[in-house]
Structures are given as structure tokens and as C-alpha cells.
From TrEMBL:
It is found in: Membrane. Residues 318-340 are annotated as: Disordered. The chain crosses the membrane at residues 75-97, 117-140, 166-188, 200-220, 241-271. It is a multi-pass membrane protein. This is EI24. Keywords: Membrane, Transmembrane, Transmembrane helix. Belongs to the EI24 family. Residues 320-340 have a biased composition (Polar residues). Coiled coil: none annotated. It comes from the Eukaryota. GO terms for cellular component: membrane. It comes from Sinanodonta woodiana (Chinese pond mussel).
Length: 340
């Protein structure tokens, strides 16, 4: 029992360490790309491409290198958008604009009258700001972040592991839809477990769910590029859950500190690119610990399979009905033609 507990603690510590230290390898990856020329890419060039490369001026080569964005530049743009524009606008509104308007109201209407006036002006301004600025920008940020996260993950994978495996488009879409449904249900499962009436147990289970979910978010980019399907990815998380619990623990702690859901999303969007790089550089296969497989994803996988299969059967039944109707229509037209 004590040996198993030591293994669990060791896995949590190793995952936490890999997440924190892995983010520091971003600068090494960019420096390695700049200092070491890729011989493999030179060997893969055709004869015509080599002649063009020789004829190409060196100044154009330098400009093309400068135009190629580095991983650090991509991460900086992502952090600048989420922290410098989105989060900063919320802080300025709540800390500068609203207090300034409240002070101006007190100055113009007096202290006694301003209490009643600000009682309905303050909520109206907050609602208008949320509806006209926060909500549209939040949706736009989610869309932009998805492209940035994928771009950062692909760039990190190419620089450290080579070309990603390109799956079939239909298989890739089905895999992503199933993964999104499963992750949404797993998030709901963690929120329900958080409200268990047993003291402290519900909170521990809720934090465990968030840690594993953040680890799945981070490692999923690498595993998809490696060609692993969603059930294989979930099996790795469940088999080595102490390691992935420790890996997602920093993100779970930092995103739980803000009281606002929007601010928590900003913190996640700022830190998540670093977790993607850390997951890409981590070697989770080295952590082979002998403990029981934690099948927390089992219920949501069964529900996702049921919903997925039900929708797929519904599509097949609708297609069969359409096919039967078209066949009947064709038979009817042939009969009427023969009668004529």
C-alpha cells in the first residue's frame, strides 16, 4: 500500500515537473532551428529546386527566414491578444471606468442622491459592456485561439518530431466530434462530482477531473499528429493518471483562482500554449508505474458512444428512407411509362 502511494506521488511530481520545465524548452527549440541547418530538408530537394536555391540571392533567403514565425512569436501573439487586449479591457472597465463614473456621479448628484442613481446605472453599464464587448470578443477569441493553438502545436511537433501523420478527413472529423462530445460530458461529470455532499472528497475528485482534462487538452495535439485515435488517447490518460494529474495541476490551480469565468478563460488561453509545448516535449512513456487504471472516462465514453451511434443510425435510417422513396418513385414512373 505504501509502495503504491509512493508511486502515485512520484507520478504527480514528475508530471508537474514536466509541465513547468517543458515550457522553458521553447527558446531552445527556436535557437536549435536557427543555428542548425536541416540536412534532411536539403537532401529532399529536387535537382531543379537546388538550382533555384543556388540562383536565389542570399538577401532573399535571409528575408524568408525572418518572415518565418517562431514558436515564441506565436506564443507572444497569443498572450498579447488574450492578456493585453481581452483581459486588460475587462480590468480597465472594472477598475478604472466604473469607479471613475461612480465618482463623477457622486460629484454631480451628491452622495445621497448618487446611491439611488448609481444603483441602476452601474448594473446597466455592466450589462451593456458585457453584451457589446465581452461576449463578441469572447467568441472571437475562442475562434482565434483554436487556430493559434493548432499552429503552435504543429510547429512544435515539426521542430522536435518531424512531419505529423495526416489522417483521413472523414475519420479526423468524426474523431474530433466524438472527442469534443466526450470532453464536454467529462467536464459536466467533474462539476457534478465537485458538489458531492462528502466533505473535501468532492473537491478532490473535481480537481482530479480538471487536471486530467487539461492534460488531455495539452497532449491531444501531439497524439493526433502521431496518429492515435481517441480511445487510445483516453486509455493512456487512464493508465498513467498520476502523471497526467500532476501535469494538469498547475493549469487547474491557476485557472481556479479568478472568480470570473471570463477571466479564468483568459488565464487558460495565456498558459495553454506553454502546456502544449510542454506536452510535446514530455516523454510520458517513461513513467511506467504499477497502479490500478483509473477509469474516470468510462461513463462519458459509453454515453458518447450511445449518442454517436444513435445519431449515425438516424442518418442511415433517413438515407434508407430517402433511397426507398426514390426507388419507389422510379418504379412508379417506369410503370406509368409502360402503361402508356
Amino acid at each position: 500500500m505504501s509502495n503504491t502511494f509512493q508511486h502515485i506521488c512520484l507520478g504527480i511530481v514528475n508530471g508537474f515537473r514536466d509541465n513547468v520545465l517543458g515550457a522553458l524548452k521553447v527558446y531552445k527549440m527556436d535557437a536549435k532551428t536557427e543555428t542548425e541547418p536541416t540536412k534532411k530538408s536539403e537532401e529532399e530537394l529536387t535537382t531543379l529546386a537546388r538550382r533555384r536555391a543556388v540562383k536565389k540571392p542570399s538577401k532573399e533567403k535571409e528575408n524568408s527566414k525572418e518572415r518565418a514565425p517562431r514558436i515564441t512569436q506565436r506564443i507572444f501573439l497569443c498572450c498579447a491578444w488574450n492578456g493585453g487586449i481581452f483581459w486588460m479591457s475587462i480590468l480597465l472597465f472594472n477598475s478604472v471606468l466604473l469607479p471613475g463614473l461612480q465618482w463623477l456621479t457622486i460629484l454631480l448628484a451628491g452622495h445621497s442622491s448618487s446611491v439611488m442613481v448609481w444603483g441602476w446605472i452601474g448594473p446597466v453599464l455592466s450589462w451593456v459592456f458585457s453584451a457589446l464587448w465581452i461576449l463578441p470578443l469572447f467568441v472571437l477569441t475562442k475562434v482565434v485561439n483554436n487556430f493559434w493553438f493548432q499552429d503552435i502545436a504543429d510547429a512544435a511537433y515539426r521542430k522536435s518530431r518531424g512531419r505529423p501523420q495526416l489522417p483521413n478527413i472523414s475519420v479526423f472529423i468524426a474523431d474530433m466530434v466524438f472527442s469534443l462530445l466526450m470532453q464536454s460530458l467529462f467536464l459536466m461529470q467533474g462539476m457534478i462530482a465537485h458538489f458531492l455532499p462528502i466533505p473535501a472528497v468532492g473537491q478532490v475528485i473535481g480537481v482530479l477531473h480538471m487536471c486530467l482534462l487539461y492534460s488531455l487538452y495539452s497532449f491531444e495535439y501531439k497524439w493526433i499528429n502521431m496518429g492515435l485515435e481517441v480511445h487510445q488517447r483516453v486509455s493512456i490518460i487512464e493508465m498513467k493518471w498520476p502523471y497526467f494529474c500532476g501535469f494538469g495541476l498547475p493549469m487547474a490551480i491557476l485557472t481556479s483562482l479568478p472568480s470570473s469565468f471570463v477571466v479564468s478563460g483568459c488565464v487558460f488561453s495565456i498558459l495553454f500554449p506553454l502546456s502544449i509545448v510542454s506536452a510535446n516535449e514530455a516523454d510520458e512513456n517513461n513513467h511506467r508505474l504499477d497502479y490500478y487504471q483509473l477509469k474516470l472516462f468510462g461513463p462519458v465514453i459509453r454515453i458518447s458512444n450511445a449518442l454517436f451511434n444513435h445519431s449515425f443510425k438516424g442518418q442511415r435510417s433517413r438515407r434508407s428512407v430517402t433511397t426507398d422513396a426514390s426507388n419507389r418513385h422510379g418504379q412508379t414512373s417506369e410503370t406509368s411509362t409502360s402503361k402508356r
